[in-house]
Design a protein that fits this description.
single chain, 496 residues, alpha/beta, Aldehyde Dehydrogenase, Chain A, domain 1, Aldehyde Dehydrogenase, Chain A, domain 2, six-stranded mixed sheet, 22 strands, 37% helix, globular, binds 1,4-dihydronicotinamide adenine dinucleotide, binds magnesium ion, Ald_DH_CS_GLU, oxidoreductase
Amino acid sequence: MTSVELSTPSVGKYTQPTGLFINNEFVKGVEGKSFETINPTTEEVICSVHEATEKDVDIAVAAARKAFEGPWKKETPENRGKLLVNLANLMEKNVDRLAAVESLDNGKAFSIAKGDVGMAAGCLRYYGGWADKIEGKVIDTNTDTFSYTKQEPIGVCGQIIPWNFPLLMWAWKIGPAVATGNTIVLKTAEQTPLSALVAAELIKEAGFPPGVVNIISGFGKIAGAAISSHMGIDKVAFTGSTIVGRQIMKAAAMSNLKKVTLELGGKSPNIIFNDADIDNAISWVNFGIFFNHGQCCCAGSRIYVQSGIYDKFVQQFKARATANKVGDPFAADTFQGPQISQLQYDRIMGYIDEGKKAGATVVTGGERHGNKGYFIQPTIFADVTEDMKIVQEEIFGPVCTISKFETEEEVLHSANDTTYGLAAAVHTQNLNTALRVSNALRAGTIWVNQYNMLHHQVPFGGYKESGIGRELGEAALANYTQTKSVSIRLGDALFG
Ligand code: NAI
Ligand code: MG
């Protein structure tokens, strides 16, 4: 069996594929293994899915290679674009089912999951538009030579994605890789295999040839490691923890020097100046850290507030954070659902205990929410020092710190004093302050008077240890193309 009947509160019964999606078919793993996926809201098993091991990665890579060398090579750019647009349309048509599966497996609110599906479709459609606009250059060196460049696909791409935005990360990876003519073996996170398999059905329905996009469920240490060290994979793209990012780079270096792009962690500063519109700023700061239960690589987890508004800000932010509705993802007014797993719950509670022990003040939260599911109260720490673990390390949960600052120079020093550099934000009504601070912050994305507003047209990625390469926008095409230079002799022989 490679499917199972499941039910969600929002769409009722549906058929959930559980196989490995290889060559447009759902198949069992060669070793016959499977693993369970847990509903983080109830801590109960949802179902089992088939597990890919090294041998299945080999099979998926062979399928992707055959497609790449075969019919896919002959596919016109225009048709590659059409396929992505078809897929985007099908995702929109199935938004309720996809979002329900996402909420079931990941725990995010159904209303927010619907937003994720919309953004995933938008991203795929955007890259569908790029497919027939990938162009080279003619380079004039001298009259005896005609030189031009072509942007060619890299080949078979391994893609390893995390559990915090299962469908959105799926789209971010598939869109630019398909637009540029590559084929794919994508491994989902072991915590959230389900929505990608439902979306895999749509890949077939959209008309993709077999083997172009293969989706496998499996564990990082087995299937993920097999991808990053595979001799038949030309490129690996990864989103997840910095520690695993390093392992992937090492595996790529030790195998075939496959190209590597990485989207890793962050500890992003969110800076509020005295002159900010305080009500707007609090709304964005709240969204910046508590959206997706704090499970965002770009979460605004270090909040710096200028001294003139500090006391007022802390008081108002506390009120705002406690008003966030925590609970059942399928309830209409839920903003924050459970953390993804027992392991993540334990890690986050460990950080909260560290903060308390280090002497930071709990402004609000700091405890479990309820007694079933991996829920944690929105938590704000004040009276922190820069050396505390809760200020230095990525917590990846609904936990932030607030620090008081006096001058721009001082806050810039603190904001940039991190090994990460994914995102940062500044809240001010002074245009000069906004631009000066944006220029001085060492991060790949800067938000002014907003937070967490990503758009598929705008590049996203990390400075420093937050990553290599850029996703989204035109920039992501570079992750999936290589430049070929062709030089043609027009003149006579140069050397007698
Ligand atoms: P992780 O980095 O272990 O998992 C992400 C993906 O990598 C999953 O698909 C996993 O199966 C795969 N993976 C794990 N080990 C691998 C290996 N050796 N080779 C190849 N692939 C491997 O992240 P995890 O443990 O789920 O979360 C731990 C922390 O990572 C979080 O607390 C957070 O700080 C960070 N994280 C960051 C994300 C981001 O969006 N940048 C997303 C998820 C986690
Ligand atoms: Mg799950």
